[in-house]
Specification:
It is built from eight helices and ten strands. It is an alpha/beta fold and 241 residues long. It has a single domain, classed as 3-Layer(aba) Sandwich (Rossmann fold), CATH 3.40.50.150. The strands form two sheets. It has a seven-stranded mixed sheet, with helices on both faces. It has a three-stranded mixed sheet with strand order 4-6-5. Strand 2, helix 3 and strand 3 form a beta-alpha-beta unit. The chain is elongated, with a radius of gyration of 22 Å.
Length: 241
Amino acid sequence: MTAVSGVANCYKILSRPRPRTIVVAGLGRGEEMPVFRRCFRRARIIGVEPLHEHWRIVRRAGDRMPDVVVKRALWSTVGARLTFHLNYEPDQRATVYELPRPVPGEETREIETTTLDALFREYGPWRDGLLWLDCEGAEQEILAASTSLARAYRWINVELTFCPARNVPPWQETDEVLRAAGFRLLAVHSAARNGRQTDGIYVRAAEWDKIRILSVESGIQRKLDRLAERSRRILRRRGER
């Protein structure tokens, strides 16, 4: 659910300091790039997108180019060639996963792969980055193969699809992989109108615990403040009698 508004919604949830490196996997036609630039002004953006048709659109638009261009598909291995299903035209839902019913005459394409660890080796190192995954169901496969998640990323934004159209791994498997890597689901945002898909923001477990404790402490303080104010009002009323 990486709609343009989703970037701004994510930005509101992220805590400071802001990420200095953002990996956008599934750049598509680059509609989110101006919003990334506006929200994360000092960040270097690494854009990963497998379809050359989309790169042509990104180049023509002018304000959609990332700082680093990666014309491959993220996957669990480097240098493999995967068959992507494009339905009837190259669109932003291109994926390695098939539909539960065949698409007559659909367009497919062989695309070379890379991995998160390969990106980290080639363009890193960095710390406390933001990983923005919009890979049409391949999130579990991509994340499970990475050994650099905890070092490279403070926040991971992934699609969570509860009733997927394609034969993709269930969202619970993506959650399990991220939990095993030391991350916890902090918040969701930008839900689809039908409620079947949303974006989830994961943070490191230590930060998740810190946020949870701070939230409890803040709630306790608000309650004490309300009780104190109530006591003051009662004393004022008594003094006026």
